Amino acid sequence: MAMPPSLRLLLLLLAAGGGGVAAAFELEEATVDSIHRAFAAGELTSRGLVELYLRRIASLDPALHAVIELDRDGALAAADRADAARAAAAALPPLHGVPVLLKDNIAVAGDGGGSGGALNATAGSLAMVGSRPARDAGVVERLRRAGAVLLGTASLSEWCNFRGPRIPAGWSPRGGQGRNPYVPSATPCASSSGSAIAAAANLVAVTIGTETDGSIMCPSSFNSVVGIKPTVGLTSRAGVIIISPRMDTVGPITRTVTDAVQVLEAIVGYDPRDAEATHIASKYIPEAGYRQFLNIDGLRGKRLGILRKDFFHFPSGSVQEKVFSEHFDMMRTLGAILVDNLEIPSMNVINDPKQSGERALMLAEFKLSLNSYLSELATSPVRSLSDIIEFNNQHPIEERMAEFGQDYLLQSEETNGIGPTEERAIAKLNKLCKKGLEKVMQDNQLDAIVAPGASAHSLLAIGGYPAITVPAGYAANGVPFAICFGGLKGSEPKLIEIAYSFEQATNVRKPPSLQRSVI
Q: Residue 510 catalytic?
């Protein structure tokens, strides 16, 4: 009897890990396209791929803490269905058979087929364990329609980094402390840290993160992966634990711009459960999708604003100073027009959430959003923010209350919806947007602004603006850093052209030096 392709691949990869023959399919740095080529060539099955990622997670995640929960049975069953559909020569959707990890604030109710698929969505909190949504989140429904295999949930900063100011980035009582795979002592940064760690360490093909203010951009930067923070409303927040409807967005975190764009194309669109925001943003979705903008010559003719005074603060002679200078020269060579030394008015106010009004609005919106999410769950041990606060008080050891407290939760509980204070905050934020990023871009006829890493996170957050972060280099201590291209609402096509052209010209990303045996 012929050996099944999945078993043959597994043995080849195990042999390669021990110094034997190289595998026909390379799991490390695999892309959506390389996975589909391996499927088509008969070198790989979806089941085999899921098994390989499960083995790699079992080997590496005890040190990385990138994964909170796995649905092995459901993922293998979904992979089997994908393999059967492929064997039947059916028309296949774009992410067919590709494993995905979701940030642990995105609801997964299961596929209803009796083969698993339900996952806890807890935002890292023990209070939420056992909660079950009535249906999948909007983005999960779209991922299923695109053929993705839902592997499990990725770790995060508890409550999306909104429990209190003392909680370390990447820590939650469910997931432990997420570790940067390049430099374990370095921060994994912000609340979508598990998604970025998992993508960086090749624990899965594709991950999904969410961002309020920096939570896709920052972990993507510190873990040398690509993150797309979409225009607010481009992707549905229905079935997602969010902080702020004004600012929260769901986006892909992957190893390449191409993969991120393919995932973005699969998850955008109108959702009646997030009707207002997705209806407004749906006008930005190009008719032929986003992959058409993967243009290797995409920098040519683009006017890029360098926010040097506000964000490019590097020690003289540092690696970052040298690398960004080289990148700017390269972009000019490729036809970009760099408008240098630009400054955003009132950047000091924008960067201070108390002065800008961002904090006051977030506190009120979080309570409203969380209580609404909890009310829609099919089952849950908690039904309100006050229930969660009480749970934490009753479980001080597990939730490490003495160390971290729950200041933001308490402050949020004291709010009473959108009143005069919040309306003033909204008006101030709108003014900062209009006289800040929007004015600078319009006055200078910019296609995008450029900033290092996630340094412009608040500038882009308060207006719901999009951004793409792309690996840009590695500091002297080995910690990765990124370049960020941001723009006005709906400017994803231009940002994709710029980011893809930059990535293809630089090819900066390299995988972390991790244990390579088990794979």
A: no
